[in-house]
Structures are given as C-alpha cells and as structure tokens.
C-alpha cells in the first residue's frame, strides 16, 4: 500500500485542524484546539489501488516557524490554506508560505485551499476574500484551487480528491529524493545514511478547570432550617409554627404568588395597590375559600410579616416536606421509603392541593422505585426558581430591604438572599454591624463597578452570572472578595477559553496580557487560572520572552516557566547540532 504525505500549512486560525478533523471524522470539532504538530491517518481507494494518507497538521505558534520545515521532509503535496474572512492570511500565501515551500521543497506540488467559505453568507463579516480573488491567486501561482467549509462539510471531498490526484500524478518518489537533497539547501551523498531530525517533545495538555458543585440547594436548606429574616409564619394543627420567606415562596410557586398578590406585571408597574384578577382576594384568603388555607393575617405594612393559618388535616411533618421542596427542589425523603408510604402519599396530596406538579412527580417516582429521576427534576426546579427570584426581586425597590450605593447608582436587594447565599453578607446583615440594625439598610460601596456588582447579585439570586457580557476578570475579583468560589471557577473557565481563542493571532503582539492575568489570579486566589496561565506562558515561551511584561515574572513564577518552557532548551540544542551536521555533510558533498 502506497503512502502519501499531505502537509497542511497556512496562518494560525484559518481552519487547518478543522479541515483535517472534519475530513477524517465527518464531524466538525466543537472546541477550538491550538495545534502544535499533529497528524491523522486515512485510507482511500484510488483507481482500484489502496493508498494510505498521512495528513500532517502544523503549528501556528511563533516557535513553530523554526521547527516547521523539519516536517516538510517526504511531503507529497502541500495544502496551502487561508481563511476567506482573514485577508492577512490570504496575503501571506504569496508573502510567506510560497517562498518557504519553494526554498525547502521546490518540486512538491501545491494545492491552494480557501477555508470557512460558509462565512460569506454572514452579514457581520466584511471584506471577505472572494472566489475570484482566490482563483486569480491560484492562476498566478499555477496551482489548483479548492474552496471548503468544515462547518458545513462543503467541498471537503473535492478538495482531498484533487490533492490525491495531484500527488499521484507527480512522480513523487523522484520528488521525495530531490526534496531530501534540497532540504535546508544541502545535499547528501547516496552512500551516506540520512540523519533524522530530532523529535520535538510534546507540549503537554493544559490543566483542566474544575467547576465547584452548586451550593444553591444547600444554601437554601440552611435558610429554611435557620429562618433569619423570615417574614411568613405558617400555623398548623396543634399550634405548630413554621417560619419561611415570602421571596422564596413566590419565586418557587405560582400558588404563593397569588396568596401574596405578587405578579411580574405588577413589578413592572411598581404599584403594589394594583392587584391582578388572578390573585386571591382578601375575602378569599380570610374566609377559607382557598383550599388548604384557613385564614391569612397581615400586619399593616404588607412587607413586614404575614401569618397563614393552614386548614386542619395538613400535618406539620408533611408540610415541612413541601417547604423543603420549595426551598431546595427536593423533599428530604429517605432513600428507603418502605414504611413511610402513607407519609409520601400525604405529601403528594398536599402537592396536588397547592398545584405543585413536580412534587407530585417526585413522590410518584419514590413510590415506584424510580427516584433516580428526582435529582434532575430538582435541578431543573431550582434553576427555574433562581431565574424567577432574579426577575421578580433583584433591583426591585418595592420589595427591597437593602440598598447598595455604587458609582452614583442604587442597586436594590434582599437580606434573605444575601444572607443565605453569601457568608460575608450574612455577617454584614445578621450580626452586630450597623447595616443589620435597620429595616432597610443602605450600604455605600467603593472601588467596585456597578456592572460587576450587579453580576455578583445575579449569581447570588439565580446561580448564574453574565460573565460573557461583562468584565470577567472584575467579576472574578469581586467573587473572591465575597467568598463565591464557584463563581470564581466559572470566571476562570471562561477566561481560559477566551485567552485560548486569542492565540489565533500572534502571541507576541496580542492585546491579551496573560502575564498580568497570571499575577491577578494569584492575588485573588484563582488557583486554577494561575496554573493554566503558567502552562500557557511556558508552552509559548519564545513568544512571551519577547513581550515587555515578561520581566514581571519573578520568584516561583519565572522558575516554573523556565523549567517547563516549550520547546525545551535540550531540544533546541539538538536542533542546532542537527543543523551543524547537515551543514558539514553539505560542505563535503560540494567539495566532492
């Protein structure tokens, strides 16, 4: 079986790796993966003959420029790629890539490949390279031309069929010999054994960024067990009392929205006096017309406290399970339900009474030994509750008992959320601080932007934060200050992805300050981001060494980077020795 070596070259980020991976796997890669040197194997039939395609991907990083020609040895064809949305990559075909190929491997055929042609239909991208420009360049270079889209898999088959045909048409065995003799401008004697170039060591994989498990459920479990800032009291049979929070009940349940006469349309109007028809009337709530509720007693200020007398027949133990569900997404039922089936049936009865369909499903799953579905139900329920909690109460002055003053802006919040979700805030509003003494607390915050603080608030309310749309580093710093480790992790992951995408440009000239990011991450306890930055700097040592901020690396940081630099000094020394040997052999041959 004949081997054909295809070498894919071109500027970084033009789609070389995606071209090869999509062709060989028939699936577009979902994640951007920076290439060092990689190769893929594929087997095809050409005119009844089986041929093995060695598909070589090449590095895009600056340090690859020196070692890249070593991979040219034995190439049967070059797939010279550019991206239609990157004019610079198109211009570099003539300015950079063709001169290099003609110098090292003048007899190896070339195929010009336009990548990402699906972007021509995007109205957001201007100045794309046209098909006519691509064909004109191919005409000047006297090479075949193909257009491809890895995303839509358009033109891939035609591209590689053309490359196979072009490579097999040329007498590549003869060309390989010439290429070997001409490589680096030297020639070898036929009697001399060819010295193989040193093997480049692997750069290694970047550290994974792990995301801490959500504490949303456990935080609200603690709030239910220790109901600080409670503003609702349920009275059950036997004068049993349970304290709760209007905010949680309304966010988790439409039933309690109607009880407390809260609606989102009401929120938009900011008029508590306007009650929608769907809410229960005062007459309904005080006369026993609402199933399950005997009466509701409100103090003069409706925001202060509400007492709800539940009907006889609602057992305290069962209603505790209902509250657990509303606060955490799951009733705290034991795994082995044998012997408590009656209690589960009673919880299910209350769920039906109050319109909690998901709680009914959870109870039914427990009775049918299908409780393995319940965690997913609870996760979804919590996600929806958090979203409603943010939409209904965050920055809503009608229901706020905390006002933050930041950059001349007021941000309205709720002590129950802040205390449940953040230990720093819990101490501020639940202890001996001045802020904890008044009904509505006002706090002046300095050295923080309203945008970042609002993102932190969104996370506390909903367990999600708008990291992609905001200052991810600023949010990470604020998250560390307020002890939100999971939010720090989310920022770390997003930042690493963004930096990784930035390597499509030259690292030496990139606007992304990775070294500054490293120092910030170490200052604010973002350990995973720190480790990732150290790996990234080490893996791109030659490029970072040329940056002005490289001198800021001191102590253990510079020690780590020097120890783990890529390519390592030992490999670069081997390359020098190899080049010297080739030079000597070339001189001898020329003398001969």
From TrEMBL:
Membrane topology: Lipid-anchor
Protein name listed in UniProt: BTB domain-containing protein
Gene Ontology molecular function terms on file: GTP binding; GTPase activity
Family to which this protein belongs: Belongs to the small GTPase superfamily. Rho family.
Superkingdom of the source species: Eukaryota
GO cellular component: plasma membrane
PROSITE patterns on file: BTB, RAB, RAS, RHO
SMART domains, per database record: BTB (SM00225), RAB (SM00175), RAS (SM00173), RHO (SM00174)
InterPro entries xref list: BTB/POZ_dom (IPR000210), P-loop_NTPase (IPR027417), SKP1/BTB/POZ_sf (IPR011333), Small_GTP-bd (IPR005225), Small_GTPase (IPR001806), Small_GTPase_Rho (IPR003578)
Location relative to the cell: Cell membrane
Domain BTB, chain residue ranges per copy: 230-335, 400-469
GO annotation terms (biological process): small GTPase-mediated signal transduction
Species assigned in the record: Magallana gigas (Pacific oyster)
UniProt entry keywords in alphabetical sequence: Cell membrane, GTP-binding, Lipoprotein, Membrane, Methylation, Nucleotide-binding, Prenylation
SUPFAM superfamilies recorded: P-loop containing nucleoside triphosphate hydrolases, POZ domain
